[in-house]
Amino acid sequence: MRKIVIISVVTAFLCGFTACGDKTNQSVSESSSVATESSSSETTASTDTTATESTTESVTVSKTTASTTEKSTTTTSSTSSFQQTDISGGIVFSEDVEDLSDDALISAAQLLFESACKTEWDFTVGSPYALDTTQTAKNIYGWDCYLITADGINSLDDVRADYHKIFSESYSDRIDEVFTESGGRAYCLNGARGADIFYEKSVVTAVNSRSDNEISFTVENYYNGDDFGNDAYISPEDFVITIDYDGAWRVLKFRLPY
Fold first, then answer.
1. Exposure pattern of 153-182 as b/e (b: 16+ CB <10 Å)?
2. Fewer Cβ neighbours under 10 Å: the N or C end of the chain?
């Protein structure tokens, strides 16, 4: 009887131990399963997020590149349609004027206008050449002009050749008033005057008309009267260029804005 009781107790103990082990294994298994699912879920979420970020970044870079390329193409198209020659100073277009965009023509006109401003100022107010102020000759008004020492500038024709690198041969110049020649040498008045203190800038804004031999533009000259309490204003004027004897475009109608 005692042996039966002991065996029963041992059997009961072993059964309980086995049951407990099964529950423990089941618990560990379930926990492991949950952890695995959680890890899988996080991994999937991370992968999806990374994929999304990668896709977004790729699209953004693509758009930026496209924008940059487009801008570069536009700029190149505008500036490569003409060039200003070093020798003649005029503008040479790479295509027929009728085929060029307004932007391309305006860019060319802006360059010519700025060149015209500098040329007109140098030739009619100052001097584009080095001078010897100890040697003089009288111009048509009886004013003293100074000897030009630059090589190759010995006559009014030499001076005109330089001036008309920017201005058309049809443009009426003032070379006779500012320059003179005597004894096979050329002289320059080199008159000094101040520029308009209100002048700020000039911008070519529109193409008014175009033909095979002439293009008309609107140029807006900006003035600021703040020094004296006056209002700033814009003065629009016509600016015209024409094709010259050598196929280059030069200035036909112009007024120095300062």
1. beeeebbbebbbbbbbeebebebeebbbbe
2. N
Length of the chain: 258
Tell me the pairing of strands 199-210 and 233-243. unpaired
pLDDT in tens, 243-258: 999 999 999 999 999 8
Residues 6 or more apart in contact with residue 253 via CB below 8 angstroms = 171, 216, 238, 239, 240
Both structure tokens of 29:
């298994």
β-partners of residue 92 are 83
Which stretches within the chain are classed as H helix?
A: 2-79, 102-124, 156-163, 175-178
Structure tokens at 235: 């003065």
DSSP 110: H
Prediction pTM value? 0.67
CA 123 to chain centre: 30
What tens digit of pLDDT does each residue of 2-48 get?
A: 443 333 433 443 344 444 344 434 443 444 443 444 444 444 444 44
